[in-house]
Design brief:
Layout lengths: L4 E6 L8 H11 L3 E6 L5 E2 L2 E2 L4 E2 L3 H8 L6 H15 L2 E4 L10 E5 L2 E5 L12 H14 L4 H17 L24
Parallel strand pairs: 1-2, 5-6
Antiparallel strand pairs: 3-4, 6-7, 7-8
Helix pairs in contact: 1-4, 2-3, 4-5
């Protein structure tokens, strides 16, 4: 049996809800083989990020790279286009921290796209960015275009949030394996 292999390069989250841990859970739920490289530094040189086809910052991270605070969908579009043109690599600016929506903005060779997201009533959203990135890698490994992969990955992420997993007392993780079980945990 041929199994797709996904390499995640990210930091570790000891709570298990984000970082490499969330990546491995997401990759496993897609029935792919997860591999990891744990790092606290970026793999960059003077020419930009090495061997990347997509960079997936959240609003705060994108603002740091862009050099300006990003607080609206219009600012996300401007930043994504600027960053794509500057670094010659696709950028997905994740809007999970937006107040009124959870829209993401993708800018790459195919153009500029807004992928709509909805607010889901669940405080347990720790690791959503890592989960979206890993789901996106899995969808790309299936041979989908970047846009189609992102739409499918957002659907997976929404399902993992909507499942309503609740562990601990704080802002907990999503349920990465929701697509492998029913609501009763079977």
């Amino acid at each position: 049996m041929e199994i797709k292999k996904i390499l995640s390069i990210a930091g570790s989250d000891s709570s298990g809800g984000a970082g490499i841990q969330a990546d491995l859970k997401t990759i496993t739920s897609y029935k792919f083989y997860g591999m990891t490289a744990i790092t606290a530094i970026t793999a960059q040189n003077t020419m930009g990020v090495q061997a990347s086809s997509l960079i997936t910052p959240n609003l705060i991270e994108a603002g740091i790279i862009y050099g300006k605070k990003i607080e609206s969908l219009e600012e996300m579009k401007e930043a994504a286009e600027f960053l794509y043109n500057k670094y010659k690599v696709a950028f997905l600016i994740k809007g999970g921290h937006l107040k009124d929506s959870k829209d993401d903005v993708l800018c790459g060779r195919e153009g500029l796209f807004v992928i709509e997201g909805k607010n889901i009533d669940n405080k347990n959203t720790h690791g959503t960015g890592c989960t979206l990135s890993s789901a996106l890698a899995c969808e790309l490994a299936k041979g989908k275009s970047l846009y189609d992969a992102l739409v499918a990955a957002k659907k997976y992420l929404s399902g993992a949030i909507a499942y309503g997993f609740d562990i601990g007392r704080g802002r907990g993780p999503l349920y990465h394996m929701y697509n492998l079980s029913d609501k009763n945990g079977n």
